[in-house]
PRTRC system protein C
Amino acid sequence: MQITTLTRTFKYNGATLRDPDPKQTPEQVKEFYSMAYPELTTAVVEGPEENNGQLQYSFRKGAGTKA
């Protein structure tokens, strides 16, 4: 029996973002990247889907609110 560890990748707005820390949850990764992409604060995490030996998560923009 062979055990394979899948790496995670995160997609946002057409860009592939590396996994900053495999010990973090996808929500924590979203928070990490929200410093560079402020709109991620309201984004939704989707996935994972297995793709070419990677677990791929997607950040989808959340609905905005009007004041």
